[in-house]
Q: What sequence folds into this?
């Protein structure tokens, strides 16, 4: 059986993290989300994978290549304009050569056992969720699907679509000029096709910036200490993974924590649970980091306090930087959300000494912030705050 993975989308609601990369290349626990999908397919025995790419496609194609590194065979279909999921699937038609095949979103984490259950055609993996407004809600009679209602404004049920289907090649005829896959499925149900639910064991996705923290925590499924670097006079509690050539000095680390390759931490720093630190990261003395995602090539000066935050790659953070964490109202497009978070900082920002950022603030890419500033709200890309 083949699998078609839809990875062409941008992820508008995840800005600033999707300005320079597609949503599927956001890293959690130091790996792109799409990598978890590919590994799950491989572990479920599906080795022939078609990636439908579009937005910033080179970031995906350069990273995964032909899939040999992961023990799979990857081919690419291009969606030049991101018109919708059905349109994306249609681009893969010429590469599908098995009668039955799977279709999966590239921006969700799924486990091999869920994939193994998807053996029958016209099956949709479903999951219970109270966040019905984020997904397509599935109404059913027994296992049989009656309708999929996209992002309803009021509660109508807790069974939601994961977007993971088993189709036959007949689906390509049914797509026609339709761009939305849910609409295609609903039309087929009205024609008399029997779509059935299959329970998803593990399924999590990223819709908003704060979901990165949730999924990062979820992705830390390793167990035990895996230390390849050099650890000097450091107390380590719980599951901690430290990469090659990393040096940890006189610090305290409480897992789950992942620290990448070629990093330096400490002395006298504290790294608390649910924190992932990328490759080539420098964390100065007396820093405190908790429940945060730190990208590659980030420099964090001494005495910084970072909690419930995401800092993308290539940022330079000055000393005494503080991310406050509390409940805040964040507007994403036309939606207003109240959530307890720290801050979200895009790529290649430079932040001076003694800067404090209020909860829920979103700092764009390549922003320059001078020392002794209080930052709040949304800061656009390439803004200079002096």
A:
């Amino acid at each position: 059986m083949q699998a078609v993975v839809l990875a062409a989308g941008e992820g508008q609601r995840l800005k600033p993290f999707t300005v320079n990369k597609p949503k599927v290349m956001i890293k959690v626990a130091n790996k792109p989300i799409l990598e978890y999908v590919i590994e799950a397919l491989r572990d479920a025995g599906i080795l022939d994978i078609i990636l439908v790419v579009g937005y910033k496609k080179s970031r995906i194609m350069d990273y995964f290549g032909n899939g040999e590194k992961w023990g799979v065979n990857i081919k690419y279909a291009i969606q030049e304009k991101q018109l919708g999921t059905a349109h994306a699937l249609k681009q893969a038609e010429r590469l599908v050569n098995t009668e039955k095949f799977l279709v999966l979103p590239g921006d969700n984490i799924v486990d091999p056992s869920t994939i193994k259950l998807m053996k029958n055609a016209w099956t949709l993996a479903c999951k219970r969720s109270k966040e019905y407004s984020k997904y397509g809600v599935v109404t059913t009679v027994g296992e049989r699907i009656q309708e999929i209602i996209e992002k309803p404004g009021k509660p109508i049920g807790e069974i939601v679509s994961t977007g993971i289907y088993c189709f036959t090649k007949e689906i390509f005829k049914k797509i026609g000029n339709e761009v939305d896959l849910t609409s295609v499925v609903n039309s087929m149900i009205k024609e008399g096709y029997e779509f059935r639910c299959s329970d998803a064991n593990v399924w999590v996705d990223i819709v908003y910036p704060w979901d990165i923290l949730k999924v990062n925590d979820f992705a830390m499924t390793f167990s035990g200490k895996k230390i390849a670097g050099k650890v000097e006079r450091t107390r380590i509690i719980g599951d901690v993974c430290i990469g090659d050539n990393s040096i940890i000095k006189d610090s305290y680390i409480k897992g789950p924590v992942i620290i990448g390759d070629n990093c330096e931490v400490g002395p006298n720093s504290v790294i608390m649970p649910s924190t992932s630190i990328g490759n080539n990261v420098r964390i100065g003395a007396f820093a405190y980091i908790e429940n945060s995602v730190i990208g590659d090539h980030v420099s964090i000066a001494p005495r910084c306090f970072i909690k419930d935050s995401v800092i993308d790659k290539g940022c330079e953070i000055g000393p005494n930087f503080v991310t406050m964490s509390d409940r805040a109202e964040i507007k994403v497009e036309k939606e207003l959300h109240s959530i307890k978070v720290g801050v979200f900082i895009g790529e290649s920002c430079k932040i001076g000494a003694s800067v404090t950022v209020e909860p829920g603030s979103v700092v764009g890419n390549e922003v320059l912030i001078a020392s002794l500033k209080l930052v709040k709200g949304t800061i656009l890309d390439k803004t200079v705050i002096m």
